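Hello Y.,

Per our agreement to keep a running log of every chain we model this quarter, I'm adding this entry. I've kept the format consistent with earlier entries: sequence first, then predicted structure.
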Amino acid sequence: MKKRVTLTFPKRSVQMPVTYRLAKDFNVAANIIRAQVAPNQIGKLVVELSGDIDQLDSAIDWMRSQDIGVSLASREILIDEDRCVHCGLCTGVCPSEALSLDPQTFRLNFNRSRCIVCEQCIPTCPVQAISTNL
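Predicted structure for the entry above:
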């Protein structure tokens, strides 16, 4: 099973090897999608956790016991069709290739199932047609 979560680390926990502990202690793989971590600052990680459902739940309980904020990611990318000018700038920063331009019509295509909600497309859009639902 897979779960996408956002982890928020208090300043004192930023140095903790969380992904190592998830793999070693819980047999849970953590695919880091986005990270903002620096010493002596609050850190944020967006990760996709994979493993057995019971192991995932145990890992999440452990992280919460370490004062790491865990929120299940239910966000998704929204594209305002009225604002989008189909310039394609967002396609160049999309790591999962969820955004692409149709070679025939030159219109933007959004494959929602490929999107990992890394949000790299949001600041790239010159007309601010891309946002999240939260």
